[in-house]
Amino acid sequence: xxxxxxxxxxxxxxxxxxxxxxxxxxxxxxxxxxxxxxxxxxxxxxxxxxxxxxxxxxxxxxxxxxxxxxxxxxxxxxxxxxxxxxxxxxxxxxxxxxxxxxxxxxxxxxxxxxxxxxxxxxxxxxxxxxxxxxxxxxxxxxxxxxxxxxxxxxxxxxxxxxxxxxxxxxxxxxxxxxxxxxxxxxxxxxxxxxxxxxxxxxxxxxxxxxxxxxxxxxxxxxxxxxxxxxxxxxxxxxxxxxxxxxxxxxxxxxxxxxxxxxxxxxxxxxxxxxxxxxxxxxxxxxxxxxxxxxxxxxxxx
Length: 301
Ligand SMILES: [Zn+2]
Fold this sequence. Notes:
Number of strands: 14
Domain Cas12f1-like TNB: 200-252
Pfam families: Cas12f1-like_TNB (PF07282)
GO molecular function: DNA binding
Organism: Kyrpidia tusciae (strain DSM 2912 / NBRC 15312 / T2) (Bacillus tusciae)
Keywords: DNA-binding
Low-confidence stretches: 5-10, 275-301
Oligomer: single chain
Bound molecules: zinc ion
């Protein structure tokens, strides 16, 4: 079996082993009422910040004709009450998600989608996802995570215990996200962690292929269409909707076959399979001040 790695999307560890990012979803257990209340407050603050930032975008847009971008919003809103009620990187993450949504909306508009609407406001009762990065969290032994809270709080940190899915071994943890199930009220930690890809053990040979343009090339007409990759992992071109990750994977395989001088086994079959939109793997692409961040291969956990 052959595995195709995207060099730009995998980082090398010291001994030259490719690394991938996985996300483990773990239910928070033994959550005290006090901690549940605090988590609810964080989720509420995240919703409020989303709405404040969205209102800020729209009102500046109405007044000046220009929509403030992510960097401007970070500057303008850092003194906002809701912004200060979350760790600063958690607040920035929300502004980044909003920026992402606006970019998606613009792509739709550019593609002439008449039903495209600017990002909406969240309902007050919605508890939004809260992201903890870098110094705002610490993974403790015994399936526990310590979250650090901003100055405003009397308590400066909270420790949550979680149940990892069986057979999950965490690598180096990058960030954790907290979400609340609106029906059950249960909280979940989504732990993004880096693990070496153990290809050799799985009998997989790794061949590195450049991923340049592979996410923007239409698998049907082979044209480069930067605007085709739109919101939530969708790629629209040639009157078809594709899963954007599949488009990238397809193009990387095409490139490998071309470079290796191999023939494409059965293009019609694969295109047929690709043409069926896979709606169950919608994945947010992260946006940074410098633009879109590279993703990784997604793997079901
Ligand atoms: Zn096309």
